[in-house]
Amino acid sequence: MDDVFVQYRPAYQNDPPTQEEIRKRNELRYKLNRELTGSVIYRAVHSQRRFEEVMAEFWRNHFNIDQNKDEVQYLAAHYEQTVIRRHLFGKFSNMLLASARHPAMLIYLDNDVSQKPLTDREKSLMTRYENRRYQPRSVQALGRQRGLNENYARELMELHTLGVDNENRPGGYTQRDVTELARLLTGWTAGRYGESMTMMAEGGGYGFRFREDVHDDNPKVVLGMRFNGREGEAGGMRFIKALASHKQTARFISFKLCRYLVHDDPPEQ
Predict the structure, then answer these.
(1) What total of structural domains would you count in the chain?
(2) For residues 29 and 4, is the Cβ–Cβ distance under 8 A?
(3) pLDDT tens-digit profile of 191-224?
(4) Residues 158/164, Cβ–Cβ less than 8 Å
(5) Which of 15, 81, 118, 233 is such that its CA lies 20 to 30 A from the CA of 90?
(6) What is the Rg, in whole angstroms, of the alpha carbon atoms belonging to the chain?
(7) 10-42 pLDDT tens trace
(8) What is the residue range of 93's domain?
């Protein structure tokens, strides 16, 4: 992923950046988007492995991201290869976990900015850039997000695994479950590339990061599963694996596959 940032998102040399720097970066961004879209269409039209492309479209839709949002545009091609195509005919649990840990998904559904209250270091960073005309995107995000974001937690259960919220059916979940899951997944974020993009650049290359300092370490209960708050990243991993093997997930995914491959209105049983 790092090479994509180097090639398609050159660092600004000025603060604030010049109009020419902004124009050049935008041109490269649009070029990258066109290349990914073109490659998907080309493979769909010309591939000799037709069923592979049919299934790639199914899973691409199921684990959808918006390649035009923020840094997702630089990550979408990597997501296509390492989440969708790598696990195309593998275990659902592996694809689910790969999507959950990919920066493209975390940024698309705002889990990268979901956190417990701001730390002293983050408050200091906001103060440092408070009166500057140009602020790094990470600082802007801190200004917008000072707590929990439930977007990914809701999509994870509603669209990726269990299906539409209905607490009266087996495997159903409530708003409380969504909130508790969002708390469980605080700290699941993405390490940015370069100091100018975020305060989390110490880790080196761009990729999944678990930030213990923004993780909610209080006890939680999600769908009856208890977490003591000290499990950190492992707690989220344990719950996602449980979702993947849940009976309602199997029912939901198999129904979608039948509707996609066999009939527009398959029977429920």
Answers:
(1) 1
(2) no
(3) 754 433 333 333 446 789 998 988 999 999 999 9
(4) yes
(5) 233
(6) 20
(7) 778 877 888 998 888 888 888 888 999 999 999
(8) 2-261
